[in-house]
Amino acid sequence: MLRFAPSPNGPLHRGHALSVWLNAEMARKLNGRLLLRIEDIDPTRSRAEHIEAIEEVLDWLGVSYEQPVRRQSNFMADYVQAFQTLKDRGLVYPCFCTRTAIDAAVQAKGPEWPNDPDGSPLYPQTCRSLTAVEAAGHLALGDKPQWRLDHTKAIAVTGPLRWTSFDPETFLTTARQARPERWGDVVLVRKDTPTSYHLSVVVDDANQGVTHIVRGMDLEAATDIHTLLQALLGLPQPLYWHHPLIHGPDGKKLAKSKGSDSLALERDAGLTRSALLADFRNARILVDAEDGEPEA
Ligand code: GLU
C-alpha cells in the first residue's frame, strides 16, 4: 500500500509530479494500491481550492488512486487518541514558550547551540522543568500550550531504533539508524490544531495500512521521529524510499509556498505531460509512467 500525501497549502509543482509518478510506479511494480491523503491539519494554510487543484492536476498527470480520498482533518480524533497514549505514559509536556522567548533562550545558549536537521535551533527544553503548579498557572491565565515530546524519556523507553529503506529497483532493504535526538523535543500537538505533521503522518500510515513510503529526500531526516513515534505507539514500520528532489533554475528545492512554479500554470502555458516526463528522464530520474497524453 502506497500513498501520496500532499498538504493543500499551495499549488503542486514538478516535485509533486515526480513524487506521485514514482508512487504510482512503485504501486504497479508491487502490485499494490495507491492512496491519496490530503494533509490538511493546518486550519489557516489549508484551502479547499488547493484540494480541488490537487485532484485536477493528478488527473492531468494520468495518476489514478483509490477512493475515498482521506482528509486528515476528518480524523483528528485518531491523533488525539494517539497523543493521549503518549501523555498517559508521561512522555509529553506542555510548552508555553512564545517564539520570542525561544529565540531569546537560544541566543543565551551561545553560538554553539545546535540546529535540528531542518536548520532551526533545537528547543532549549525550557518548559520540560515546569512544575504542575506552574503549568496550571499558565492554563489559568488562558495560555494555550503546545505539547512537546520529551525525547530523552522517549528514547529511554524505546532504546536505539532503526528504520528500513528499500531500493526502488531491486527492492533490497537496508537498515538505517534512527537519530531522533537530533530533533530534540519536537512539537506533537500545535497550538492551532490538535496534532502535528509528525503525529498525524504516523497514525495515518498505520491506520491506512501503508507498507511502502515513497517521498522526497527532504523528509528523510523526519523518518527519525516517525520511527520513534511508531515504536512508542506500537505501530508497524513501513519501508521507505526517499527520492531525489527537483531543483528550480535558482538551484533551490521547489517549495509550494513560492507558488511561482505551479504545475497548473506550467500546463496552462503549454507544458505537456510527455514533455514533463521527458524532462525527468533527461535529468536521469527514473520515471516509468506511460508516455503520451491521457485520453480526453
Ligand atoms: N504532507 C507532506 C508534504 O506535503 C508529506 C508527508 C509525507 O510524505 O510524509 O510535504
List keywords for this structure.
single chain; 296 residues; alpha/beta; Rossmann fold; 4-stranded mixed sheet; disordered C terminus; binds glutamic acid
Q: Based on the coordinates given, report the CATH architecture.
A: 3-Layer(aba) Sandwich
Main structural class: alpha/beta
Parts with pLDDT < 50 across at least 5 consecutive residues:
292-296
Element order: H for helix, E for strand = EHEHEHEHHEHEEEHEHEHH
Distance between the termini: 28 Å
Mean pLDDT: 92
Q: Given the C-alpha coordinates, what overall shape results?
A: globular
How would you characterize the largest beta sheet? 4 strands, mixed
| Cα radius of gyration in angstroms | 20 Å
- The residue fraction in helices comes out at 25-40%
* Total of domains: 1
- CATH fold-level name: Rossmann fold
How many E strands? Answer: 10
The order of strands across the largest sheet is 7-6-10-9
Attached small molecules:
glutamic acid
Task: Tell me the number of helical segments per DSSP (H or I, 4 or more residues long).
Answer: 10
- As a percent range, the share of strand residues is 5-15%
Write down the CATH class: Alpha Beta
CATH superfamily: HUPs
Describe the model.
With 296 residues, the chain is of the alpha/beta class. Strands 7-6-10-9 form a four-stranded mixed sheet. A three-stranded parallel sheet has the order 1-2-3, with helices on one face. The chain has helices at 14-29, 48-61, 76-88, 99-109, 132-140, 151-158, 197-207, 222-233, 263-268, 273-282, and strands at 2-4, 34-38, 70-71, 92-95, 146-149, 162-166, 173-177, 187-189, 212-216, 239-243. Helix 7 crosses helix 8. Mean pLDDT is 92; it is low at 292-296. It has a single domain (2-282), classed as Rossmann fold (3-Layer(aba) Sandwich), CATH 3.40.50.620. Glutamic acid is lined by residues 5-7, 39, 201, 215, 219.
